[in-house]
What we know:
The protein has 9 helices and 7 strands, in the order ββαβαβαβααααββαα.
Amino acid sequence: MYPSISASQWGSPTAPKKALLIHGLTEWSGAWEGLAQLLVAEGFFVVAPNLLGHAWRRGTDYRISTLAEDLRPYFIQDTSYDVIVGHSLGGPVTLSLLQFLPKTKQTAVILLDPPLEIEGARELHRGWFLNEVTNIRSTEEIDDDRGWSRRDCVLRVLGVSMCDRTTVEGIFSHNEPWSFSGLLRNIPPHVKITVLASDPEAGAVCDLEHIPCDVERLNVRVLPGIGHCIHYENPDAIVDSIQLPRAKL
């Protein structure tokens, strides 16, 4: 028995292509609005679930494997996706979803600044997120700090407002050690993965040293000047990473 499904969607279910977007910690499905609209314009039907502990969804087990298992209903009857995007916490969750993908369809997976290994900075990250949900900033404060659009600032505040300390504490305490780089070592033949890493000078959490080298079907790209929330700051880079078929001349 699965908890009630909670998600946002954009576009027509009859569109020729499908995308699944997995948000990060203290985010929610609506945070994908900007990217989703770009994908709809490219002919996608877009689905973005709310992870356990987010958007008022309650949970008691916050292991990455449990967050992924909770999303199994999105893969029933061999439901497939042309592209799956996972941001931050959604990166390890996305990698844990690969086992659910039909082996008969090629899937492009894009990971946005995923925290693959954070043991050395676990308490730093935990403290930052706890402060975020305890002292929720206004849209104006986020705008002054990040320079995002008003829409994205509002969506960010909503996400933080619908999360709490219990979720943050659970995410960090139920995933010890925090080590997920090994999930990149055996990529299925029907999957291609692109890691879009943020600029270390702009707050990246994905350390390139934690990404395995010489792995087939794995590409890595660093986005200069772009911070951790790539979907807010440069959604076009995400769309560009999807190898969309060119129009016939």
